[in-house]
Design goal:
Blueprint: H1 4-9, E1 19-26, E2 31-34, E3 39-43, H2 46-53, E4 62-65, E5 69-72, H3 83-86, E6 87-90, E7 96-98, E8 106-107, E9 128-138, E10 142-146, E11 152-156, H4 157-184, H5 196-200, H6 205-214, H7 218-222, H8 227-259, E12 264-275, E13 284-289, E14 302-312, E15 318-321, E16 327-330, H9 336-339, E17 343-345, E18 355-369, E19 372-378, E20 383-388, E21 400-408, E22 414-416, E23 421-423, H10 429-441, H11 447-456, H12 482-501, H13 507-510, H14 523-530
Parallel strand pairs: 3-6, 13-15, 17-18, 20-22
Antiparallel strand pairs: 1-2, 1-4, 1-8, 2-3, 4-7, 5-6, 9-12, 9-14, 10-11, 10-12, 12-13, 14-15, 14-16, 18-19, 18-21, 19-20, 21-22, 21-23
Helix pairs in contact: 4-8, 6-8
Length: about 550
């Protein structure tokens, strides 16, 4: 039976499985790990390097890694003794945890990958093997296009549909121009004459083809050909047409890609999620890419999410996103109460609500910039201004609309952006019923009533951010990454306190989870950090 590292270096197994290793050596920027038989050098990210420098991880420490990768120049398997300089094991902080001193080295047989609280993840700690999260909001489908200049443009579904139609028209026109140019290429009027006796002496299809092509009267020349010459000419003409067709298609594609290059567009859906292991913690954002290739995540449902990438959100805070290897498994339980949001009219929006569904009648719409429209919506008791950014929606005066996921700013202004959608006939049955009730309520209101309501509304200058990420989705005391900054500083504070006292901090504290509290995690979650994993493991999770 071969050891774990030997099977990995010989390409007979994957390092993405749960793997228990012991630190056998520490260098300036790397460490060496062993499975008890062979050793392999590791590449570390910044949070793991901090733990090495602070001596939280020392020679003899045991760690368990999930979702590790092998990097190196060899595509084929090589013996582990040769792999010490050719291959390296890449470890991510978010997928590495301390193992018990008595843990068995090698692949760990477990049937579930332990879920980590989202609050302990580091933005620069790489991908996380598994988290448990409750989806409390699923925002509209978006598209991200990378332009030739490198600039990235976000579009709503309606805007993307219009842009694709424009691109198709441009591409069709370009194809027509290129095809016309190629068809006229090489067409010249022939001026070469030849006698009948000279024609009868030609026995090459290529010569006959060139002769007819250059002759001023090709039809009269073809009438002079013998049956054998006609067969030779037809055979060569077919080959020449095929060659020219291939050449024209190649030139067409090259020039088309140069004049009208293919678009680089990818779909995405943003979600607001709560950590299932930290129910009282602030929400986070999860971006799922290539949304059309996977089943949509439903609001009010809990999921196990595997191989989730972590990154920094605008320099501070944590942003989560899926990758090609990400998987989602729905868990039992109904959390629809967490996903509920109020359905309001203009004058009944509760104070302090970060977002809601708004129903009202459009009284006025003014285009302020290319990306911003000021819309005044009203009900029977008042009116308010809604700032509409690039959503692809046309706003017409007199229309009764439902704005889904309307964002409420710090000053109480209403903002409709990429998170929101506007519709006069929503698909949701609850919203459709509310919209019908509102139409019945205002059916007897004359035009003079709405004119008076519009004129009585006090106009205020609002300068709101032009991107939806600037609009808070959490209580304002936690806005601007306050809670995330505190979580990200926890490791450094623990390390500093340990160095001042001359002792090394507890391993669980260094990895962002305090032994006494564990941030409100369940006993099962605590055991994942403090005791070895002994249950069976399902290999297919990371393959």
């Amino acid at each position: 039976r071969r050891s774990a590292l030997r099977r990995i270096t010989e390409k007979d197994d994957t390092p993405a499985k749960p793997l228990t290793l012991v630190v056998s050596g520490i260098g300036s920027k790397t460490i060496e790990v062993s499975d008890g038989w062979y050793c392999l050098e590791c590449v570390l990210d910044n949070p793991l390097s901090v733990l090495i420098q602070s001596r939280a991880i020392q020679v003899g420490s045991k760690i368990v890694s999930f979702s590790s990768t092998i990097i190196g120049t060899h595509n084929d398997g090589i013996p582990p003794l040769q792999a010490k300089t050719a291959l390296k094991l890449k470890l991510n902080y978010n997928s590495v945890r301390p193992a018990a001193w008595h843990a068995t080295l090698g692949f760990t047989a477990v049937n579930t990958v332990p879920s980590l609280p989202i609050g302990v993840l580091a933005p620069d700690g790489g991908a996380c093997a598994c988290i448990e999260a409750i989806v409390i909001r699923r925002y509209p489908l978006q598209f991200l296009e990378t332009l030739a200049s490198g600039k990235k443009v976000f579009r709503s579904e309606k805007e993307e549909r219009r842009r694709q139609e424009e691109y198709d028209r441009e591409r069709d026109k370009t194809i027509e121009d290129i095809t016309h140019k190629l068809s006229n290429k090489g067409q010249t009027k022939g001026s070469r004459s030849i006698s009948k006796e000279a024609v009868n002496g030609i026995d090459s299809g290529q010569e006959l083809y060139e002769l007819i092509k250059e002759h001023p009267d090709p039809r009269s020349l073809q009438s002079l050909l013998t049956p054998t010459q006609r067969e030779l000419l037809a055979e060569y003409s077919e080959k020449e047409r095929s060659r020219q067709e291939v050449q024209h298609n190649k030139e067409l594609v090259e020039e088309l890609n140069e004049r009208c290059p293919p678009r680089k567009v990818i779909s995405l859906v943003k979600h607001k999620i709560h950590c299932a292991l930290q129910p009282d913690a602030k929400p986070y954002f999860l971006t799922t890419w290539r949304a059309e290739q996977q089943a949509p995540l439903k609001e009010g449902r809990c999921y196990k999410m595997y191989n989730i990438s972590c990154s920094s959100f605008r320099g501070s805070g944590l942003s989560l996103s899926s990758s090609k290897s990400s998987m989602f498994r729905e868990l039992k339980g109904d959390y629809s109460h967490l996903a509920a949001k109020p359905v309001c009219t203009v004058s009944s929006v509760p104070v302090g609500v970060p977002e809601c569904d708004l129903i009202g009648k459009v009284l006025h719409a003014e285009r302020q910039t290319d990306s911003r429209t000021a819309v005044v919506m009203g009900d029977t008791e008042g009116a308010a201004e809604v700032i509409v950014y690039n959503t692809g929606d046309e706003v017409k005066v007199g229309t009764v609309l439902c704005v889904v996921n309307l964002q409420v700013s710090k000053s109480g202004s209403f903002i409709c952006n990429e998170k929101s959608s506007m519709s006069s006939s929503p698909k949701d049955k609850t919203l459709s019923g509310k919209l019908t009730e509102f139409r019945n309520l205002i059916a007897d209101k004359p035009a003079t009533f709405w004119e008076a309501l519009l004129s009585s509304r006090s106009t205020e200058d609002t300068t709101e951010p032009d991107h939806w990420d600037d609009v808070p989705d959490i209580p304002w005391e936690q806005y601007e990454g306050h809670a995330n900054k505190q979580a990200n500083k926890r490791t450094n504070e623990a390390l500093e306190s340990g160095s001042k006292s001359g002792s090394v901090p507890l391993f669980s504290t260094v990895f962002g989870v305090e032994t006494e509290e564990l941030l409100g995690c369940s006993d099962r979650a605590k055991s994942n950090f403090q005791t070895p994993i002994k249950s069976d493991y399902h290999d297919s999770i990371f393959e």
